[in-house]
Write a structure and sequence with these properties.
Elements lengths: L2 H24 L15 E2 L8 E3 L4 E4 L6 E2 L21 H25 L7 H12 L1 H9 L4 H14 L11 H4 L5 H20 L13 H13 L1
Antiparallel strand pairs: 1-4, 2-3
């Protein structure tokens, strides 16, 4: 199979994952914790050690707030392992095993703080956080918030959990069995999208501010398109 065929299948796989995820969300078949009706606190999604400013004794501030949003209070922070699951070289399953070990340490510290809180007598937040991890809800939330990780998490952690097992255990091939869950209109839309994306890959030109070294690049690209049209 050549690279163009692989790219076409990648497009189909990504299209199907998003259509099925949308259908699961619309039909309320995704298992997500109930967050109530607010009010919700603002949460910095890029909150990690590298973005924390320290002085000699205390935390002085937090930077990098461009991805702030309303909070998911029960979700364990992905940065406990520093490396995001989609970048972990050994795959998401191995990442999850390593993350689980670090989460236990995080929850121990959280429960210690909860026990010191004289206004509340229950370990409410830590227990909810642990249940979110054990149920897999955290990875559903992570997929929603991180588009680069969506497809890997959907096929490895969401699809079979929500739609049942497939004959193949290979998450890269499962989309072929799920294709029959799309109606004919969606299948047609998928093939049109695949054609358009492959055409864009063939003709795509990077655009940037022109200078003396790149002045003639757009004209060369236009000439290439004209020759192709002939």
């Amino acid at each position: 199979m050549n690279m163009i065929e692989l790219s076409a299948d990648d497009c189909r796989r990504n299209f199907i994952s998003r259509q099925l995820f949308y259908k699961l969300a619309r039909d309320k078949k995704l298992s997500l914790p109930c967050y109530g009706n607010g009010p919700f606190e603002i949460w910095c999604d890029d909150f990690r050690p590298a973005n924390i400013l320290l002085n000699e004794k205390n935390i002085a501030g937090v930077v990098d707030w461009e991805f702030d949003q309303w909070s998911f209070p029960y979700a364990p922070p992905w940065w406990l392992f520093i490396e995001k699951p989609e970048y972990w070289s050994k795959g998401i399953e191995d990442w999850a095993q390593e993350f689980d070990r670090r989460l236990k340490t995080f929850l121990t510290a959280m429960r210690r703080c909860e026990d010191m809180d004289t206004q509340h007598s229950q370990r409410w937040l830590s227990d909810q956080t642990q249940r979110s991890w054990e149920s897999g809800d955290i990875l559903v939330l992570y997929a929603i918030l991180h588009s680069f990780a969506f497809d890997a998490i959907y096929w490895q952690k969401i699809d079979r959990r929500s739609l049942g097992p497939t004959q193949t255990d290979d998450p890269n091939e499962a989309w072929k069995e799920r294709l029959n869950l799309l109606n004919e209109n969606k299948k047609g839309e998928m093939e049109r999208l695949v054609t358009r994306k492959l055409d864009e890959m063939e003709d795509r030109v990077l655009r940037w501010d022109r200078d003396e070294y790149t002045e003639d690049i757009p004209s060369k690209a236009d000439e290439k398109k004209r020759r192709k049209g002939k």
